[in-house]
Amino acid sequence: MGVSIDDAADPAARSMEWLVLGAAYFLLLLFLIGVFDLFFSLYRLLVAGNFTDPVEVVALLDSVLLLLIIVEVHRTLVAYARGQAVLRIVVSAAIIAVSRRVISFRLEDYGGGNEALLAASALGVLVLALTIGYFLLDRVSVPGRVEL
Predict the structure, then answer these.
(1) Are 30 and 66 in contact (CB under 8 A)?
(2) End-to-end CA distance of the chain
(3) Residue 127 CA, distance from chain mean position
């Protein structure tokens, strides 16, 4: 009466699927709160008359990009729970996250010009590498590669 590895691992796998779905629903709740906050911030921006202030507009755009990151992570969790490929979704979420950082890049956040230049260069390399990787995911086919 031996128990196989698959039988022993099955409850853990089912539990992980439920936890992944729970995280997906939690992200859905965070997204709804974020959308409400976005509309509230937009309302405050319009009422205060600061809609032409670049800092305020960038902060609003930062919120929109954060919501897009939440959507991409949610898509990743749902695809993972369904057993679908997630690599393309993860790379697109990373592109959005790095782009968010590029858009909100401010020289004042760094101690000097060299630090700012190094950070800007690193962000540029990240955007380039992620973009190339995103396009290569469709164009390069490796025999025997398991789709992630």
Answers:
(1) no
(2) 36
(3) 14
**Residue whose C-alpha is closest to residue 41's, from 20, 24, 23, 56:** 56
- CA separation for the pair 120, 126 (Å, rounded): 10
Residues 116 and 107 sit within 8 Å (Cβ to Cβ): yes
CA separation for the pair 131, 110 (Å, rounded)? 26
Tens of pLDDT, residues 15-64? 888 999 999 999 999 999 999 999 999 999 889 888 788 888 888 888 99
Task: Cite the DSSP H helix spans in 53-86.
Answer: 54-82
Q: What is the pLDDT of residues 66-80, one digit of tens each?
A: 999 999 999 999 988
List pLDDT tens digits, range 107-139: 887 888 888 899 889 999 999 999 999 998 878
Take residue 23 and report the two structure tokens written for it. 């995280």
Say what the pTM is: 0.77
What the block records as the tokens of 127 is: 């955007």
List the one residue out of 18, 34, 99 whose CA is nearest residue 71.
Answer: 34
- State how far the Cα of 70 lies from the Cα of 64, in Å rounded to an integer: 10
Query: Tokens 């670049």 correspond to what residue?
Result: 54
